[in-house]
UniProtKB/TrEMBL annotation:
Tree of life domain: Bacteria
Keyword Chloroplast in record: no
Keywords on record: 2Fe-2S, Electron transport, FAD, Flavoprotein, Iron, Iron-sulfur, Metal-binding, Transport
Domain FAD-binding FR-type: 27-127
PROSITE patterns recorded: FAD_FR
One Gene Ontology term of the molecular function aspect: 2 iron, 2 sulfur cluster binding
Binding site for [2Fe-2S] cluster: 262, 267, 270, 278
Protein name as annotated: Hydrogenase
Presence of keyword Transit peptide: no
Pfam family, one: DHODB_Fe-S_bind
Cofactor(s) for this UniProt protein: [2Fe-2S] cluster
Length: 295
């Protein structure tokens, strides 16, 4: 197994302990039941899931930023981030954009159907390290899914975090996800600024790039930490702008996507420079990603 972390043995033991929540065999999927399906938009559904095995439900835990390897019979596996926070109760949520064979089959699922899941996989957002800071989220498209997990976590542990600001961009108003949550977040004092590339007659918020929303907020390099997720091109511009606004690369966190097979640092499919995205990431600080051209 390729190991690039400075404390691989400690990390391996911790990861093995996490997997042991579900099964002794890290390649063996566990069956989860889809309890509810929430339509976010034409292309995106949120699956509210719980384990068939009640003991799995009781012991299962994860941290925002981690993901599950999701499988469907004869269609293989795909990595999908948790869009829920472990503070939201038992089970978990996966928010899935229809992309290819597996995700299209997931879009045909009905409540009560089953999916296979392995995990939790990956290195999460450093939620403890972020305590005491203001949190600035910048999400684009389906990239808002892993960020939703952190927003929910921070709201459940409100006293540990400062101001929370969410900047979220989509192509059109119909492409926005998590509309209900955005309303709830606003009522809980979260500043939410939305932006679309193309508005419609009912759209009253920003039209343009999500980076332009950064001009509408006060960024304080000393106390703000940014969490960014979206398409590669969006991330490149957002990360560059955050640095221009004075944020240190070590204060900016992002989660990367690469094609994956094993999800547990063995096959080498997901390499990014000298790292494995499934194992060393998918969450990285910008200080770990000097070459933004490769995002
Ligand atoms: C850590 C991680 C977390 C993810 N979280 C989510 C999530 O929360 N919700 C969600 O909808 N998707 C997520 N994805 C992306 C998802 O895994 C892919 O869209 C998935 O491969 C789709 O499987 P499929 O069989 O339906 O499509 P495929 O047949 O595998 O692919 C369909 C199209 O998408 C492209 N593609 C596949 N995988 C990727 C990738 N990793 N990066 C860029 N392009 C890709 C393919 O080249 C192809 O053009 C995540 C990916 C990673 C690596
Ligand atoms: S090493 Fe196999 S998917 Fe990352």
């Amino acid at each position: 197994m390729k190991q690039t972390n400075s404390t691989p043995h400690r990390k391996n033991r911790e990861r093995a302990r996490q997997f042991a929540q579900m099964s002794d065999n890290i390649y063996l999927p566990c069956q989860a039941r889809v309890d509810e399906i929430i339509r976010e938009n034409d292309q995106v559904l949120t699956f509210v899931c719980s384990f068939e095995d009640v003991l799995c439900n009781k012991d299962f835990s994860y941290v925002p930023g981690q993901f599950m390897m999701v499988s469907m019979p004869h269609l293989g596996e795909a990595p999908i981030s948790f869009s829920s926070s472990p503070t939201e109760g038992t089970g978990f949520r996966l928010t899935v954009r229809r992309a290819g064979r597996l995700t299209s089959a997931m879009h045909e699922l009905k409540p009560g159907d089953q999916i296979g899941v392995r995990g939790p996989c990956g290195t999460p957002f450093p939620v403890r390290e972020l305590e005491g800071s203001n949190l600035l989220f910048v999400g684009g498209g389906i990239g808002m899914a892993p960020l939703r997990s952190v927003v929910q976590y921070a709201l459940a542990n409100r006293e540990r975090y400062g101001d929370i600001t969410v900047l979220y961009g989509a192509r059109t108003p119909a492409d926005l996800c998590f509309r209900k949550e955005i309303g709830l977040w606003r009522r809980q004092g979260v500043t939410c600024l939305l932006s679309v590339d193309h508005g419609d007659e009912n759209w009253t918020e920003h039209v343009g790039l999500v980076t332009e929303l950064l001009d509408q907020v006060q960024v304080s390099p000393a106390s703000d930490r940014a969490l960014v997720c979206g398409p590669g091109i969006m991330m490149r511009f957002v990360l560059q702008k955050l640095v221009t606004l004075g944020l240190e690369p070590g204060s900016i966190w992002t989660t990367l996507e690469r094609h994956m097979k094993c999800g547990v640092g063995i096959c080498g499919h997901c390499h990014f420079e000298d790292r494995l995205v499934c194992w060393d990431g998918p969450v990285f600080s910008m200080a770990q990603l000097p070459d933004l051209e490769n995002l």
